[in-house]
Amino acid sequence: MHAKVKVVLIDDEHLALQYLEKVLKSYEGIEIVKTYMDPLQAIGDIRDTKPDIVFLDVEMPEMNGIEIAEQILLHHSDTHIVFVTAYEYYAVKAFELNALDYVLKPVKRERLENTLKRIEKEKAEMAPDGSPQSICQIRCFQSIQWESPEGGAETIRWRTSKAQELFAYLIHRRGQPVRKDVLLELFWAEAEWKKGYAHLYTTVYQIRKTLDRLGIGLKLKNYDEGYLLETNGVKIDVEEWENGLRKAPPITQETIHEHLQLIELYRGDYFAEYDYMWAESERQRLRADWYHHASQVGQFLVGTHEYAKAIVLYLRMQQIHPHMEEVYFSLMKLYDLVGDREAVEAQYRQLTGMLLEEFDMSPQEEVRQWYEQWKTPTE
């Protein structure tokens, strides 16, 4: 530790508090700001003292330690919380296998050193001076990523899959307050009430720390009896795409490039890589909007005899909507127009196989008739 690290200790057991204070004072770089047996007083003081680290007992009579941690982070999100507990089972299970920092009582020097090194590493990974980086957007199409101004996309590293899903849900509900009881019902319905709240608080803690580390401007705030994700000007690819679709001019030779760009912005279905049931209705809505727009663009390209571009577009439509018979039919007719008989045959075989496997049915009469006439040589 290169600079003095301000530390606050909170524990309702006087002897445990004294022992931890003694161990920490043996480190040169540590400054013990104050020790507390009353968590409410500590919360009030921390707003002014703004410590770097708070060592916090998990089980206290007045307030659960995880609730105290949330109150601290609400007013000073840069603080690192280290939970102190006598129960290893509680620490491992409630904090999801070291998802948060914790030490066991009696505190051992080696374990304490590991915790301090971990916090130092996290501080080093923060955005310079704690200031938000300027980023392009958060991606929700296909997978959750953040995009830098230079155009590079990176996957956000989450400590647990639950933190990733809760973050995705908060992005889904961005700008709207979400009640804690709704989140408990959605993500921890099977857990006992107290344990469910512990999971919720620790997962929120993970999200806040990850966002602070990335320095991308998103802030997760407490709001009434729940949370509110503030985007603070950070763009979301879904919003950008929908806004572009609403504002798009009619499709003409002069504007076709703009429409093709909108089609490319849809990199895949909404959170497609994750099996989030709560996202399904939105996923279907966005897919339908994209398909409707892509169909209009495809018809324009066919009408202007840009068959190669139309084929590329319809193949993309087929990839995203593999069960749409009309897409196969459109491709068959396009391949016929460019004289690629093998591709026509291949599309018909794919269509027949897909319909049989998925729906136990054959192609529509219109498609069968067209194909039979196509196969019959003209004299």
From TrEMBL:
Pfam families in the record, alphabetically?
Answer: BTAD (PF03704), Response_reg (PF00072)
The record's section on SUPFAM superfamilies has: C-terminal effector domain of the bipartite response regulators, CheY-like, TPR-like
Please state every residue range assigned to the domain named Response regulatory: 6-120
- Gene3D superfamilies, A to Z: 3.40.50.2300, Tetratricopeptide repeat domain (1.25.40.10), Winged helix-like DNA-binding domain superfamily/Winged helix DNA-binding domain (1.10.10.10)
Is the Ion transport keyword given for this protein?
Answer: no
For the modification 4-aspartylphosphate, the affected residues are 57
Signal sequence interval, chain numbering:
none
Q: Keyword set for this entry?
A: DNA-binding, Phosphoprotein, Transcription, Transcription regulation, Two-component regulatory system
InterPro entries xref list: AfsR-DnrI-RedD_regulator, BTAD, CheY-like_superfamily, Sig_transdc_resp-reg_C-effctor, Sig_transdc_resp-reg_receiver, TPR-like_helical_dom_sf, WH-like_DNA-bd_sf
List the PROSITE patterns.
RESPONSE_REGULATORY
Record PANTHER family = TRANSCRIPTIONAL ACTIVATOR DOMAIN, TRANSCRIPTIONAL REGULATOR REDD-RELATED
Q: Report the protein name in the record.
A: Response regulator
Organism, per UniProt?
Brevibacillus brevis (Bacillus brevis)
